[in-house]
Design brief:
The chain is of the alpha+beta class. The protein has twelve helices and 15 strands. The longest helix is centred in the N-terminal third of the chain and has 27 residues.
Length: 453
């Protein structure tokens, strides 16, 4: 009780502690305010290209080991999450380097609109970190970084890269040494990360008949694979193949504009690459090209109708329908809808329409939709059956309104449609314009689709 504290030395220690805490706060504040001054690590970056292509491993430098991306806008679209975190060193270094080298001032712009996505990007380590705002104008193709109180331009590829993490959340990094990465690099493409890996069966892609999603999807894209000397046809009916889906850093070739996002798809049998092509994913199967950047028509030297004419071998149902007039095919379709006969209804639809819609409204971690979407069934996305919502479909009247040429006609059909829920089409009597095409001698007239003049 009578012990006296050494007041002088306690005061000295306290002063040192206060100074240390103050210094720590200053450094932390400095980390948040001046990101460009903290990430140099004493190493000069001669040139930071926005694209990762051709950049040797380790070319990007950072003192941070974590990045967190938060989506601040309301419209989620196909995004799975509102935020994403990564500790992959190459990814963190690339993002840090891009943020630091986005130095071109931008004029003030209206960034608070419904077509500009907003994100926060936070980089950190054990000592602290900093954050920036990213604005991605998806309508006018512009991207901005807000940092240090200023607005700066940044590249669209970088904005798309940041955005991709919010949909593709089950990601595999560290793919630089894979055979897939080496193959795409050979043709000038950089794989950012693996989106998904799928075990699948490869159906018969040598002869096509009744529409089968697997066979038609792989047969179409096998033509793109042939452009780089690969061919999956010798592996038809293989029970166990591996399909790897990667995000490609570069955008789709210009001819696919305004589509930009691209995926690299690699097909393997026993770890050997047997097929590889580039696909935008949703919403059309035809938004795809070879690793040389060539379209289907350029690779094959044929139109899709010509190619299908060579590939399809009609079965008995197809032979019967091929002899019908367009009006009769329309009647067959609505009878099949009313009777809930999906197989017969599918035979009435153009193979090109069915093939194109295989990736409609699809998440990019998937390869294609397993189900066949049938027009006017008004089914919700993700439904197990085309008939989950349709109660009845009665054809009342068919009349020819336009004959484009000998192989294309448009009919106005009057129908009575009844649904359990009125998703995008209402109940009752209504008319639709039905576009018909003469697909091939083997398959005859087919429905391309329904619309309103």
């Amino acid at each position: 009780m009578h012990y006296k504290k050494p007041v002088f030395w306690v005061s000295i220690v306290a002063a040192v502690v206060v100074a240390a805490v103050s210094l720590s706060l200053v450094v932390s504040k400095h980390l948040e305010a001046k990101p460009e001054n903290l990430s140099n690590q004493g190493a000069e970056l001669n040139s930071i290209s926005e694209s990762l292509s051709g950049i040797p491993e380790g070319a990007y430098h950072t003192e941070y080991n974590r990045v967190k991306i938060e989506f601040l806008s309301d419209m989620m679209g196909f995004k799975s999450e509102k935020d994403f975190e990564a500790t992959d060193s190459e990814t963190v270094a690339y993002i840090d380097s891009t943020l630091r080298t986005s130095q071109t001032p931008a004029e003030e712009d209206d960034l608070n609109n419904n077509y500009t996505n907003q994100y926060t990007i936070k980089l950190s380590n054990e000592l602290g970190g900093y954050s920036c705002r990213l604005y991605y104008d998806t309508l006018y193709d512009k991207a901005y970084i807000v940092k240090d109180g200023g607005l700066y331009e940044t590249g669209l590829d970088f904005a798309r890269y940041i955005d991709s993490f919010l949909e593709n959340t089950s990601i595999t990094f560290n793919i630089d040494e894979t055979d897939a990465s080496a193959l795409f690099k050979e043709y000038g493409w950089r794989l950012d990360y693996q989106i998904n890996a799928i075990k699948s069966k490869l159906n018969d892609i040598n002869v096509l008949s009744e529409f089968n999603p697997n066979a038609f999807y792989f047969a179409y894209n096998n033509e793109l694979s042939k452009d780089i000397g690969l061919d999956m046809s010798g592996f038809s009916n293989t029970a166990d193949i591996e399909v790897e889906i990667y995000r490609i850093h570069e955008s789709m070739p210009q001819e696919f504009y305004p589509l930009k996002n691209s995926r690299g798809v690699v097909v393997k049998n026993r770890e050997k690459i047997i097929g590889a092509f580039i696909s935008a994913g949703r919403h059309s199967t035809f938004n795809a090209c070879s690793l040389k950047g060539n379209s289907f028509e350029k690779v094959t030297g044929q139109t899709l109708y010509e190619w299908l004419g060579d590939m399809i071998k009609a079965d008995s149902t197809e032979e019967r329908l091929s002899k019908l007039e367009p009006e009769q095919v329309i009647a067959e379709y609505f009878t099949a809808l009313d009777n809930k006969e999906a197989k017969t209804a599918g035979y009435c639809i153009s193979k090109i329409t069915l093939l194109e819609n295989l990736t409609s409204n699809m998440l990019n971690e998937e390869l294609f939709n397993e189900g066949v979407g049938l027009p006017l069934t008004n089914v919700d996305i993700g439904a197990k059956s085309s008939f989950d919502n349709l109660k009845s479909a009665k054809l009342l009247k068919v009349e020819l309104i336009d004959e484009i040429d000998e192989n294309a006609k448009i009919y106005r059909v009057t129908v009575n449609l009844q649904y359990n829920k009125e998703w995008s089409i209402g109940n009752g009597r209504q008319f639709w314009d039905c576009r018909m095409v003469y697909e091939s001698p083997q398959t005859g007239w087919k429905i391309v689709g329904f619309g309103h003049g």
